[in-house]
């Protein structure tokens, strides 16, 4: 690790927010050396509670996140918020709102806000998000909130970084319950019917309740037999703009976290995430090895030409490109 990175790391661990912000920028931009930096963070992580909040644009996520963050602050807990904007190629889209939010928290840097975007990065936003979560965790934030716009696969992957996932469902928004994507349903630990001041909230609650009961009794996938985790998604109503229902919502988040801990599910989830993280990093590495092997065998255009001229075929080319890499692996 470079001397600058070593300083940055020690400043971050000393609780300097500037260093935290700079580390997240390095993560977001995949700056040279960021991997060593994230590597060093790992041993300092494992204490934060990570909460994912998703839902359609305008559902009230940012409003609710602000209220929840302040609630935690009043309880004496420190908070980090990462707002993800997967669609925007720049941080652009999220910037205006987040500048305003940062301004409203001036003087209380214990709520640390940060927006992140895709920037067309290869490794993907979910890797960058989980790395940023590590930075916040190592920094010592008690609660880390990830806010992301639902409901594609990308967002589902991002929100899986969280221990507890809340899905916002505003009433009468066209987001009716039937339209919820299966993937989102599976990851929701809490449904929040926000904008409960608007008509239709009761109906949304009823629909969600029916749906949750219909799904009741389905086994928890992928976590094996030693985990006695049996959580039925809770449904809470909030009026985020007035802070109504925030205490109840946080109560459910606390309860879910307690159940995760008591049943061993917290650790089971962490193990699953590490497996996924290792695989994702290796895919990144393997892709890079393949790209450099293609270059050293004359570049993709040259390979394409020989296929085009019927001198060889794509299968043979692939076998030739991979062969030196395979040889190294077998050594
Ligand atoms: N009526 C009502 N409006 C709300 C409530 N919560 C948020 N809003 C408004 O909904 C709009 C979108 O909120 P925002 O938090 O930016 O939504 P996001 O896109 O999901 O982050 C804003 O104008 C909020 O003031 C609520 O509980 N009731
Ligand atoms: Mg928002």
TrEMBL record:
This is LAO/AO transport system kinase. Keywords: Chaperone, GTP-binding, Hydrolase, Kinase, Nucleotide-binding, Transferase. Belongs to the SIMIBI class G3E GTPase family. ArgK/MeaB subfamily. SUPFAM superfamilies: P-loop containing nucleoside triphosphate hydrolases. GO terms for molecular function: GTP binding; GTPase activity; kinase activity. Signal peptide: none annotated. InterPro entries: GTPase/Isobutyryl-CoA_mutase, GTPase_ArgK, P-loop_NTPase. It holds the Pfam family MeaB.
């Amino acid at each position: 690790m470079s001397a600058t990175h070593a300083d940055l790391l020690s400043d971050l661990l000393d609780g300097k927010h500037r260093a935290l912000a700079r580390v997240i920028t390095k993560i977001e931009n995949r700056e040279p050396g960021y991997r060593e930096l994230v590597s060093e963070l790992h041993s300092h992580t494992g204490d934060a509670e990570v909460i994912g909040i998703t839902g359609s644009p305008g559902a009230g996520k940012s409003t609710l996140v602000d209220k929840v963050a302040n609630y935690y602050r009043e309880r004496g807990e420190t908070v980090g918020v990462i707002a993800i904007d997967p669609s925007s190629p720049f941080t652009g889209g999220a910037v205006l709102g987040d500048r305003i939010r940062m301004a409203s928290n001036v003087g209380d840097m214990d709520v640390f806000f940060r927006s992140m975007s895709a920037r067309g990065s290869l490794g993907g936003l979910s890797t960058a998000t989980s790395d940023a979560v590590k930075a916040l965790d190592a920094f010592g934030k008690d609660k880390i909130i990830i806010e992301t716009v639902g409901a594609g696969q990308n967002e589902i992957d991002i929100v899986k970084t969280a221990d507890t996932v809340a899905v916002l469902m505003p009433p009468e928004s066209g987001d009716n319950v039937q339209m919820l994507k299966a993937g989102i349903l599976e990851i929701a630990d809490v449904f929040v019917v926000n904008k409960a001041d608007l008509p239709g909230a009761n109906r949304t609650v009823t629909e969600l309740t029916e749906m949750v009961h219909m799904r009741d009794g389905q086994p928890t996938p992928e976590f094996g037999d030693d985990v006695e985790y049996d959580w039925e998604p809770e449904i809470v109503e909030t009026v985020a703009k007035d802070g109504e229902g925030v205490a109840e919502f946080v109560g459910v988040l606390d309860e879910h976290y307690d159940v995760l801990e008591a049943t061993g599910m917290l650790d089971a989830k962490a193990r699953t995430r590490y497996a996924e993280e290792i695989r994702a990093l290796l895919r990144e590495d393997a892709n890079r090895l393949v790209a450099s092997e293609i270059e050293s065998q004359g570049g993709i255009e040259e390979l394409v030409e020989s296929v085009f001229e019927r001198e060889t075929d794509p299968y043979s080319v692939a076998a030739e490109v991979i062969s030196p890499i395979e040889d190294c692996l077998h050594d």
